[in-house]
Amino acid sequence: MKYSTILLFGAPGAGKGTQGKILGTIPNFFHCACGDVFRNLTIDSELGRIFIEYSSRGELVPDEHTILLWRKNIHTNEQTGRFHPDHDTLVLDGIPRNLNQAEMLRDTLDVRAAFNFTCPDPAKLVGRLQRRALRDNRLDDANLEVIRNRLETYERETRPVLDFYGRSVLHQIDATQTPVNVLRDILRVIAKF
Ligand code: ADP
User: Fold this and answer.
1) What's the burial of 91, exposed, middle or buried (CB within 10 Å: 0-12/13-18/19+)?
2) What parts of the chain have a pLDDT lower than 70?
3) What is the pTM assigned to this prediction?
């Protein structure tokens, strides 16, 4: 059975995490942020070390590791009764992050909608990330060079994934709005499901 899924796309700092968390509180929606799954690893595990190595440079963790970890996490959530695939919609944030990951998840995800959080001003994204660095203790947000690399990685690797899913499911969301207005725009779409 494929998972009924909503995908959140957008550059780092665009607000996917904020919206994903809110959506995850609605009954029958289950939020999974791939970055959080990585951050929950312990530093003394092999994958924890691999994660630090790549994320501290602003690069993506290799696909095989990422997809394997993500599958394990989803199965754990199913087994512990937090995620019920037969009646929950999965809200994914941060995965798939390149075309290869999208291919690897082709048989797993039934993508009902994909939201692209747009923010034409990179300075705004950088400002949000720098504020988040202190608030959330995020090493990868603390350094301007790493932030720039994350934004470039997004443009180069993640943006092409939007075409993979195509126009019929894609919705553009103006991420420069207040969180409540971003939420309103998303809810307008998913309320029709
Ligand atoms: P942001 O949205 O700000 O980039 P995330 O919390 O989504 O932050 O991701 C943090 C880091 O975790 C990424 O820079 C990357 O190194 C790693 N990561 C998260 N998701 C993936 C993924 N799907 N594939 C590869 N690496 C990932």
Assistant:
1) buried
2) none
3) 0.95
